[in-house]
Amino acid sequence: xxxxxxxxxxxxxxxxxxxxxxxxxxxxxxxxxxxxxxxxxxxxxxxxxxxxxxxxxxxxxxxxxxxxxxxxxxxxxxxxxxxxxxxxxxxxxxxxxxxxxxxxxxxxxxxxxxxxxxxxxxxxxxxxxxxxxxxxxxxxxxxxxxxxxxxxxxxxxxxxxxxxxxx
Length: 167
Known about the structure:
This protein is mainly α and about 170 residues long. The protein is built from five helices and two strands; from the N terminus they run H-E-H-H-H-E-H. It has helices at about 1-25, 35-40, 40-80, 85-135, 160-165, and strands spanning about 30, 140-145. A two-stranded parallel sheet has the order 1-2. The N and C termini lie far apart (about 65 Å). The relative contact order is 0.17.
């Protein structure tokens, strides 16, 4: 009888412990952030803005380079017919143009990167807030980005987040 009681107590403890472990498991879902970002209307608009700005920079850069090449060609053709002082002045002018072109390119890249960061920050914050909102509403403790996961067998809340974001 004592032996049966011990077995019964041990069995009850194991059942209770098993229930506690099952209850302690975290609820996990996943979301495809890349899909959200690629189809989000605000993101599509941001890409258009960045492409337009990039096109403007490219156009101005091309104009500067064309002007540089044109002057360089002209100066090379006239080099033997002008004085050394004129050639020296032209050489400095060409070097200044090269520097302006390089500076313009570097500044344009920096400004484009800054503009992208400025545009992307509120979009990313909105997506993050929506993921948190949907995850909490559905009772998930963790929501993982499904990109890079080897197994995504749990609930996918991408569609729910899209609805929350309005697309």
